[in-house]
Specification:
The protein has about 180 residues and is mainly α. It is about 70% helix and about 0% strand. The protein has a domain of about 100 residues: f41 fragment of flagellin, N-terminal domain, CATH 1.20.1330.10. It contains five helices and two strands, in the order αααββαα. It holds the Pfam family Flagellin_N.
């Protein structure tokens, strides 16, 4: 005769332990990921919610990267504009210096030479300032309704005054706020 020995209490305890371990594992997954829903074995509604949340988080992460790119672009442009501003301030300083009646022709030539160098530096900065391969400062703006009529008249008027002897057109246009 055969005898089968079983321990029902041990089998029940083992089944309860497996259930507790499964619940513990699921709770740990939720805690470690921060998500309520972690897998497709959840309900279809729960899976749809998880997909929507994942999509939202992915979109927000990309938006954050885009904003950081925008900040970097603005900082790059700001640095270039600071250089342009420094050069324009020096050109203004030189323009005021050139109006001094005690300057000789050689002094005026030296001032004009530095102004030309500053204008060339402004051109270089505006032409070479880029972010991600795109030019940042090469913009064409219409400042005056008819600059071709207004600027030459102003240049002739300024050159005819004794306060501004022999200054060339680029300097006068820079003083007028119009850079070539």
């Amino acid at each position: 005769m055969s005898v089968i020995n079983t321990n029902i209490t041990a089998l029940i305890g083992q089944n309860n332990l497996k259930g507790a371990q499964s619940s513990l594992q699921q709770a740990q997954e939720r805690l470690s990921s921060g998500l309520r829903i972690n897998s497709a074995k959840m309900t279809p509604l729960a899976e749809a919610i998880a997909n929507r949340m994942t999509s939202t988080v992915t979109g927000l992460n990309q938006a954050s990267r885009n904003a950081n790119d925008g900040i970097s672009l603005a900082q790059t442009a700001e640095g270039a504009l600071d250089q342009v501003n420094d050069n324009l301030q020096r050109i203004r300083e030189l323009t005021v210096q050139a109006q001094n009646d005690t300057n000789t022709a050689q002094d005026i030539d030296s001032i004009q030479e530095e102004v030309n160098e500053r204008l060339a530096e402004i051109d270089r900065v505006t032409e070479q300032t880029q972010f991600n391969g795109r030019d940042l400062l090469l913009l064409r703006l219409l400042v005056l309704a008819s600059p071709s009529k207004w600027v030459p008249k102003m240049v002739k008027r300024l050159q005819s005054t004794s306060a501004v002897p022999m200054l060339q057109e680029p300097l006068l246009m820079a003083v007028a706020g119009i850079c070539t």
